[in-house]
Amino acid sequence: MGQALFDEVFKNAKAMGIYKDFINAKDESSTLAIDTIEPRVLRLSWELLADEGGYVFAKRPSISVRRRLHKTTQLKLNQFDLPLRILMITARPEGAGFIDPRRSAAPLLDAVDELGDDVVVEFLRPPTLTALDDRLRDKTQPHVTFCISTGMAFTTRKLVWAFAFRGR
Question: Does this model's pTM top 0.70?
Fold first, then answer.
């Protein structure tokens, strides 16, 4: 699936040239930004993007992905009562041991910190499909679900795909 997504995105020579320049840059870390006016594009499992050498986000130096919904003139927002509830999921490879989710989540936590009690951030524990299903059935559903993928193990891909296809 990741290779098919890659082939579609980089099917013309100009796009492929930009990608090769991006990959060949020897920066310590890079960010691939997905900037679109179409929200459905942001639901795609960009973490599974794979070129002929394998998963793009497993390359060294590290590459991360950032999704951004470009400003549009008509954006429908559902009304909700404060506090804004954010559910964070940190997926990691099996056998990797403890990976501190606060490290990956620091930019988001810093951004919402000044909002005080108007935002509640919750980490899904354990970060499994069963726990996600259970949590999303709770009457206090999160307004935002934020997934941080720290590895490319099968369990991580499975969680990311389930997340994307459920429209969460």
Answer: no
